[in-house]
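User: Teach me something about this protein's shape.
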Amino acid sequence: MFEIVDTVVKIAVLPHELGDITSTIRKKLNAMLFTYSIQLEAVPVMYTDLSFDNDELVGKVMAEQPWIHVDVKAKIMQFNPVPGRVVQGKVKTVSDSHVSILAYGMFNASIAGEKLSESYKYNEESNVWESLKSSKSGRTVAPIEEGSVIEFTAINCQYTHGVFFLEGNIV
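Assistant: First, the predicted structure itself:
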């Protein structure tokens, strides 16, 4: 789910940003944090150990573009949930159509009511999803309500304009 990778990130720098290149690169990397990166195929959460090829700052101008393309080496902690993996999150909103979850305090997720109705029943009066079965030990399974922490299986990961979103199914 969370992994630290050594990678090379391609950063496009405008000529007027060359005065303090390290600061410019940090600003551009900071702007990438917590948004889905097509380049990394994951959501970068943090970075460290910035360096350049052969410890030299070298950039390329491509065609007639005004940017100077710089390859930056970095260690990046990224979030990359694979469908089928178990994810933990705190329930933020409960309705008859879905449960909205904040996974690991950072990422939006939801479980559709159709998926929940296989093992839970929605109670309109108390605005909770109540379990239809007992746990393996015979105890009642806690209802899904606002503020509860639940585990769910990631079934699909989507992103739109960098905003990352998980679809899940109850474990």
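Now, about its shape. The helical segments are 21-32, 113-116. The mean pLDDT is 89. If you'd like, I can walk through any region in more detail.
User: That's plenty for now, thanks!
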